[in-house]
Amino acid sequence: MKVHVNLNVCQGHARCEDICPEVFGTDAVEGKCVIHQPDVPPELEDKARLAVRNCPEGALRISSR
User: Fold this and answer.
1) What CATH topology corresponds to 2-63?
2) pTM score
């Protein structure tokens, strides 16, 4: 599974990073989402899905590999 962020929508709440810091981070300059691992390892898929569902702006999405 892959994760994607729409930076035009992201407001920098960082819920994704709070839930799954192995995959998501925050840009130090703009405060928006940074994806550390676009290709999510199988052992982190559940955490990444939870992070995507918890984005208040809906800036994150999941796609198949």
Assistant:
1) Alpha-Beta Plaits (3.30.70)
2) 0.93
